[in-house]
Each structure stands twice: as C-alpha cells, then as structure tokens.
Amino acid sequence: MMLSEFVERTGFEPMPAEYAKIEEAYCNFNGDKDAFCKAFVDGGGEKKIYQARADEIDRLNGKILEMDKSAKHDGAEYERRLAALQAELDKELEWKPYEFTQNISQAEYAELVKSISGGAARYMTDDEALDWVCQEFGFDRSQVTILHEIDEQEINRHNLCRASGRKIDRRPVYCATDYHYIRFNAGCGAWQWEAWNGQIRPFYN
Fold first, then answer.
1. Burial, 74: exposed, middle or buried (Cβ in 10 Å; 0-12, 13-18, 19+)?
2. What percent helix, strand, coil does the chain show, rounded to 5?
3. ∠102-205-157 over CA atoms, to 5°?
C-alpha cells in the first residue's frame, strides 16, 4: 500500500519512520488495504502515534533535565551534548518559518522594496518615517521608535510559536501616499504597529 493510499483512507499523514511501521503491520494484516485502514482508524491508530510522539518528546526533555543535573561540572561537554539534544528535540518538533497572518507578510513587503531598484520607491530616514507617523496618525513624536527589523518566527507541528533568533529586514519604505510601509513602536514599546498604505495596523509577535 502506498502512503498516499493510506492518507486518503485514514485522513492521517504519518512521518516516514512511522509509516514504515504501519507498512510492516499491513504486511502482517489478514485483510486488504481498506480493511486495514478501517482497523487503524477504529483502533485509534492516529491517537497512538501522537502519544508515541509525545512520549518521545518527554523522553528527550527528560534526558535534557538529566544532563542538566549531572554534567554541569564539565561546561564544554555539557554545552555540546545539550546542544545536540536540543537539536534532536527541535527536529522532532519540526520547527519551520512562520508568519502571523494578521501582519503584513514578508512577500508583500518585498514587493514594495522591488520598486526601489526602478526608482519608484526609496527607503525613508527615521526622521521622515517619524514625521509621517505623527502627522498621519497623531502620535507624540517623543513616544515613537522607528524599527528596521522584525523577529523571524517559527512554528512547530503542535502549533507552538517562538522567535528563531534571526532578524528580517523591515526598513521604512515610501513609494506613494497609498503605497508605503513603516514598522514602529509607541509608548516605550508597549504598543507595536505597522503603517501600511495609509492605514495603521497592530503588529503581532
């Protein structure tokens, strides 16, 4: 049975190592692929696999905690082994780049930046961006900070998000009164905003 056939019949897509075990069980099953897939669903196969994943994550976290207690005397070795386990845990969690859908996407920003090479747009200075924000939206200039970067976000297969530690370019760009971008904070960073094409939008991270 091909993986696509299994997914079509069960609505569940396992990881390669998981499907290898499923395929082995199918070979030992007394019935056709439809019967096997029905038995998988009826028997809670998907739930069992998710539990196995959770158990593996708990095992890795347990090993990290164990190392934290036993290896602090050897700093260099501790850091090396901890990093290896953290990388293994990250691989298990399948972290991948993620953008909050409420924010302006990097693709939209990149499209605006393309206009710079043709001379239709330009990067704004901080003073120009401050003037625009304060004049258009009534902010107190002394309370506004113009930002040039945003944190790259990641999401894992359990839909948990984190900052990756990498930065993404978001310098203020002006093309027209209805086509521009400014990322800024107000009130000592308590309020985070994006100015996009004449509108002000909350920024989520």
1. exposed
2. 50, 25, 25
3. 85
- Using alpha carbons, select from 203, 173, 167, 171 the residue that is nearest to residue 185: 203
Dihedral of alpha carbons 65, 70, 75, 78, sign: negative
Side-chain-side CA neighbours of residue 18 (13 Å): 18
Cα(109)–Cα(187) distance, integer angstroms: 25
pLDDT tens-place string over residues 12-53: 898 888 899 999 999 999 999 999 999 999 989 889 988 988
Return the amino acid letter for 173: V
> Minimal CA–CA distance to 165: which of 66, 86, 109, 65?
86
Which CA distances in Å does 53 have to 20, 43, 47, 97?
A: 15, 17, 10, 21
Predicted TM-score (pTM) of this structure = 0.59
The sign of the torsion formed by the CA atoms of 135, 136, 140, 142 equals negative
Would you say residue 71 has pLDDT above 70? Answer: no
Q: Containing H/E element for 193?
A: strand 191-196
